[in-house]
């Protein structure tokens, strides 16, 4: 007898061994049709695999993230087969699953262009329609190496040669024994090419060095996306189009917000308008912290390496991820700080602290430097120099829950002000590389779970992704087109205060190490600015907009009154300017609308005579006439309430 336990805890018994497909059939024909692979005692495997012993089994379909990964990986193999059929002398290398899709790196005898993707994709659709059976085969290592060398696939032979001696060498065949396409892979895979469906598309080409080493051959990387069906594919392609329109690098140039150049890789040249937004974000966070008892500090940029060795950051980031400065004369090394936390401990350590001083909340808009790989840099989203709205709370064990509860509410409130209501939280537990004993980690993780319960915070586990010093909560927000961004973090640290000798005196006069809560609200201000640019497509809420009002007359004769009105707007605290050019009003409105100016105010003779102004709000064709005083009061109210743009919180295209 074989007893199989289903995910819901129910059991099914069989009088003999059974394949994954047979098991799915025993549950229902619909599930068998949708099944792509199975999970046996936590290990993913093919539907054709035999379940010989009692086990916990679940069926994977394309509606599950794990099932969708199997579909995408099999689609990558279909891509490889299509490439080999069209370009027999091409060599295929690796083809992993990535977010939303897959890629395959290929060595072509002659370069291909984006125009060639169409014929490759057409052949992929044909392979799907041919419904080729996909089968797994275990080979002897030497036989596999010889096979791939004989067919001119030297990269595959190299991959096998580099695998550990204990590694099982499995190959997957698509099609029959004589003409079928063979590829090296651990699996699992779909049972047939037809199961991949037609919800895929090849997106672009890129260059990629073999094994990421610039000394090796430059390969052609073919990117693709794959989904459960064509409907889901179309929805994703719409999101891609929307994302391209909203690209913060494109809008940053069009709206004159910032630029980048190779003289300062990964560092931002903020223009006046972009710096206005950046400063507004800082002011906003400062206002939030003022009422919650934070002390703002500022710490040095260049720190002796000994501090980072003691804290553990030296081992975590390594010299390859830090910017290092050597002092040859005194035989010592410094690093541009990658994190603020060790410096904050130094401030805590000045003077004696007692339990009465705790919790001590220390914030800093600290600039941190990370030596990111050049290929990883991406506009404002991935930089080498970042400004974090960083803070560290030094507290007693008894204060953990109340501090975390306040932080969770603060973070959610802040995101709501920016129009982000769709938020979820990841609980990231101990990583493989960490400091501190298992007992310390057990206590820290349990304390953070208790704090989440006290905050009524729901979370999903993100295993192994905690900080090297403690578990963390990651706040993920969803933007206007359905993309997820991890921004705020709350990290519980029982280790650094011990490593850096931070102590306080408890109620009985004994020295204790404080608990350290690391937290960021927005995260990197550069990255959050990029998120806002794309989320609002440059159409910022009035309180953030770098230019809030542009006033103009109908003819030049109204220019003196226009300038007087602009002076009143500025006196009322508004970012305002005048457009006195000898151009048609319709031309000016189009131009300033393109620059995403929220309000365009027009003063003609009629408005001047009555003390009124006619305005047009970005995103609306309506023209409204009100008194100048009413107009100013209306804008001040919109700013004070942090109102979102008229089209709503998010123009959701997802």
List its traits.
654 residues, alpha+beta, Ubiquitin-like (UB roll), Threonyl-tRNA Synthetase, Chain A, domain 2, BirA Bifunctional Protein, domain 2, 4 domains, eight-stranded mixed sheet, five-stranded mixed sheet, 20 helices, globular, disordered C terminus
Describe this structure in words.
This protein is α+β, with helices and mostly antiparallel strands and 654 residues long. 35% of the residues lie in helices and 27% in strands. The strands form nine sheets. The chain has an eight-stranded mixed sheet. A hairpin with a 5-residue loop joins β26 and β27. The chain is globular. The relative contact order is 0.07.
CATH topology of the largest domain: BirA Bifunctional Protein, domain 2
In whole angstroms, how far apart are the ends?
A: 48 Å
Query: What proportion of the residues form beta strands (DSSP E)?
Result: 25-35%
Quick one: CATH class of the largest domain? Alpha Beta
Structural class, judged by helices and strands?
A: alpha+beta
Shape: globular
Tell me the number of strands: 35
Strand order of the largest sheet: 18-22-23-30-27-26-24-25
CATH superfamily placement of the largest domain? Bira Bifunctional Protein, Domain 2
Main sheet summary: 8 strands, mixed
Mean pLDDT, all residues: 94
Counting H and I runs of at least 4 residues, what is the number of helices? Answer: 20
Percent helix, as a range, is 25-40%
Gyration radius, rounded: 30 Å
Number of domains: 4
């Amino acid at each position: 007898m074989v007893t199989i336990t289903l995910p819901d805890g129910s059991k099914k018994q069989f009088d003999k061994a059974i394949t994954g497909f047979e098991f799915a059939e025993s549950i229902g024909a619909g599930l068998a049709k949708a099944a792509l692979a199975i999970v046996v005692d936590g290990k993913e495997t093919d539907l054709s695999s035999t379940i010989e012993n009692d086990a916990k089994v679940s069926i994977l379909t394309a509606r599950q993230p794990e099932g969708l990964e199997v579909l995408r990986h099999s689609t990558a193999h279909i891509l490889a087969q299509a490439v080999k059929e069209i370009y027999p002398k091409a060599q295929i290398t690796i083809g992993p699953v990535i977010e939303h899709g897959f890629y395959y790196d290929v060595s072509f005898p002659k370069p291909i262009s984006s125009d060639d993707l169409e014929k490759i994709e057409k052949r992929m659709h044909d392979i799907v329609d041919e419904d080729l059976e996909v089968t797994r085969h275990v080979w002897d290592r030497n036989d596999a190496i010889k096979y791939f060398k004989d067919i001119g696939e030297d990269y595959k032979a190299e991959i096998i040669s580099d695998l550990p001696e204990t590694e099982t060498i499995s190959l997957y065949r698509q099609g029959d024994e004589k003409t079928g396409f063979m590829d090296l892979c651990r699996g699992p895979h779909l049972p047939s090419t037809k199961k991949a469906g037609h919800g895929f598309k090849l997106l672009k080409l890129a260059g990629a060095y073999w094994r990421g080493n610039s000394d090796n051959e430059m390969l052609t990387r073919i990117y693709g996306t794959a989904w459960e069906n064509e409907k889901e594919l179309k929805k994703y392609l719409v999101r891609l189009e929307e994302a391209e329109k909203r690209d913060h690098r494109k809008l940053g140039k069009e709206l004159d917000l910032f630029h980048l150049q190779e003289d300062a890789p990964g560092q931002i040249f903020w223009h006046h308008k972009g710096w206005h937004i950046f400063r507004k974000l800082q002011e906003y966070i400062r206002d939030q912290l003022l009422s919650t008892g934070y002390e703002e500090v500022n710490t040095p940029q260049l720190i002796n390496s000994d501090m980072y060795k003691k804290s553990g950051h030296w081992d975590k980031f390594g010299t390859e991820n830090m910017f290092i400065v050597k002092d040859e004369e005194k035989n010592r090394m410094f690093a541009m700080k990658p994190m603020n936390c060790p410096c904050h401990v130094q401030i805590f350590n000045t003077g004696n602290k007692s339990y009465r001083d705790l919790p001590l909340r220390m914030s800093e808009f600290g600039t941190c430097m990370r030596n990111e790989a050049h290929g990883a840099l991406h506009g404002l989203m991935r930089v080498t120099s970042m400004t974090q709205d960083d803070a560290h709370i030094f507290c007693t064990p008894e204060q953990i829950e109340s501090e975390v509860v306040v932080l969770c509410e603060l973070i959610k409130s802040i995101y709501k002000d920016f129009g982000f209501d769709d938020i979820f939280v990841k609980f990231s537990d101990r990583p493989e590389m960490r400091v501190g004993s298992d007992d310390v980690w057990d206590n820290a993780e349990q304390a953070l779970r208790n704090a989440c319960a006290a905050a009524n915070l729901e979370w999903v586990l993100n295993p192994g992704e905690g900080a090297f010093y403690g578990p963390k909560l990651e706040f993920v927000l969803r933007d206007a087109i359905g993309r997820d961004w991890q921004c705020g973090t709350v990290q519980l640290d029982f280790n650094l205060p011990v490593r850096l000798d931070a102590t306080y005196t408890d109620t009985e006069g004994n020295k204790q190490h404080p608990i350290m809560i690391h937290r960021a609200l927005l995260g990197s201000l550069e990255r959050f600015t990029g998120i806002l640019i794309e989320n609002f497509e440059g159409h910022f809420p009035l309180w953030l907009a770098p230019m809030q009002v542009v006033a103009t007359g109908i003819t030049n004769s109204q220019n003196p009154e226009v300038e007087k009105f602009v002076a009143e707007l500025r006196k009322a605290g508004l970012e305002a300017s005048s457009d006195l050019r000898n151009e048609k009003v319709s031309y000016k409105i189009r131009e300033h609308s393109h620059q995403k100016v929220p309000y365009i105010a027009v003063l003609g003779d009629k408005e001047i005579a009555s003390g009124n102004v006619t305005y047009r709000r970005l995103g609306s064709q309506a023209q409204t006439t009100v008194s100048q005083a009413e107009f100013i009061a209306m804008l001040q109210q919109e700013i004070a309430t942090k109102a979102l743009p008229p089209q709503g919180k998010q123009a959701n295209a997802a």
